[in-house]
Design goal:
Strand order of the largest sheet: 2-1-3-4
Number of helices: 7
Order of helices and strands: HHEHEHEHEHH
Shape: globular
Largest sheet: 4 strands, parallel
Structural class: alpha/beta
Strand content: 5-15%
Radius of gyration: 23 Å
Distance between the termini: 82 Å
Helix content: 40-55%
Amino acid sequence: RTTTFVLLGLLAAVAGAFVPSAGPSFGKSLLRMGADGEVSFGDLNGEDVRVGIIRTRWNDEHVSNLVSGAKKAMKECNVKDDNIFVTEVPGAFELPLAARFLALSGTVDAVICCGVLIKGDTLHFEYICDAVSSGIMSVGLQTSTPCIFGVLTCLDEQQVTKRSSGDNNHGEDWGKTAVEMALLRNEAMGAKAPKTKMDSLGFGTAEKVDAGKKEVSKPGFF
């Protein structure tokens, strides 16, 4: 019996050696990875870009701050006020369908879906986060219109405040991302001759398509 217990103890020790550590150092390394993951943007000229912002009324104060940040960033990229459209939906779950309506209207070059989700006591947070992120990505792929995931998914309101105000307003990054992706889309699809060269991304200069003098009205939000 003694021999059996010794063997079992050895097996347990060997098995434990293969279990990854989830101690404090592991958590800190993940936090450092997140802190170093900032995105830098070059010079963007979005004077011909049209962007639609779809925002939620849920968590209105924080979402309003994020929208203000996105508009500020787009204006810095020369996007005209008349080319920035804002509409609203009740909550984050409604964002993908509204984005699809706007993308299919053909009136915008990019869509920013803006909202805030805060974890509660139930699994509602996880279900909504998964559905919204997947839905927004699907709209972009299906319509070839860049749809920016501008939804904060936070564990508490303090995390939201840190990411929606001051110098760390994530809305500013979303605004610049929308401009960059709109320029990329237009060049890739030959919609417009871009004001800035993006040849390094694999696309040559597109020539402007002459649609004639007759204006064609398009259904949509504009």
